[in-house]
Design brief:
With 148 residues, the protein is mainly alpha-helical. It has six helices and no strands. It is 68% helix and 0% strand.
């Protein structure tokens, strides 16, 4: 890579904005919640008496594997890596339909839906904030440097 093609390092961009820290913390919280939920379903599937043990184990393993996306994204956000915003945004977009379906239930799942919707919405707002975008070194469309 030439000097012009080398991406600038976010460490030299200055201190991490508070909104970026909040987005990273909320993304990590989502990853942790997915991990805990996956392990819980997995343990119940193995030790309890589920209707379908194979389905419970598969769901538990799937949740734990899905938790890797927000956990890696949170780590990247804390380190101010520009690649980390995409996986975090994807996680929030995936969380909104889950929250909506929980809000449609007539059960105790409604508070969980409210919490998931609030966290996902807040994280999206933090992620698209101009200060966050600048701290991650993400340029908008049409602002690419001239190539000669």
């Amino acid at each position: 890579m030439t000097k012009e093609q080398t991406p600038t390092t976010p460490e030299t961009a200055g201190p991490r904005p508070r909104r970026l820290t909040y987005a990273a913390a909320l993304t990590a919280l989502e990853g942790l919640a997915l991990t805990v939920g996956g392990v819980w379903v997995l343990v119940l599937g193995l030790t309890g008496d589920p209707d379908d043990r194979q389905q419970a184990v598969t769901l538990g393993v799937t949740l734990v594997v899905l938790a890797l996306l927000p956990l890696l994204a949170a780590r990247g956000l804390f380190a101010q890596r520009s690649w980390s915003r995409g996986p975090s945004v994807i996680t929030q977009i995936m969380a909104l339909p889950v929250a909506y379906s929980l809000l449609q239930a007539d059960s105790i799942a409604i508070p969980a839906g409210i919490a998931i919707a609030a966290v996902a919405s807040a994280t999206l707002v933090f992620l698209i904030n101009p200060a966050t975008t600048q701290a991650l070194g993400i340029r908008g469309p049409g602002s690419a440097p001239d190539q000669k």
